[in-house]
């Protein structure tokens, strides 16, 4: 008996800050300046102190930059 498989949605991965900075084309100093001003994609700090940003949040932020 064959079972039908539903396509799996891709996992919304957590990106390290270095990848986010590279994709946005900004420096670490700019990232922290944006965060101090309440601008930029939302990030989450891990227990080890590293920052991560969800792929979906980064894509949404990038789309907003392109629209402006």
Automatic annotation (TrEMBL):
Pfam entry (one): HTH_17
GO molecular function: DNA binding
Keyword list, A-Z: DNA-binding
Secretion signal, residue range per the UniProt entry: none
Domain Helix-turn-helix: 17-61
InterPro entries: DNA-bd_dom_put_sf, HTH_17
Coiled coil spans: none
UniProt-recorded name of the protein: DNA-binding transcriptional regulator AlpA
UniProt source species: Streptomyces avidinii
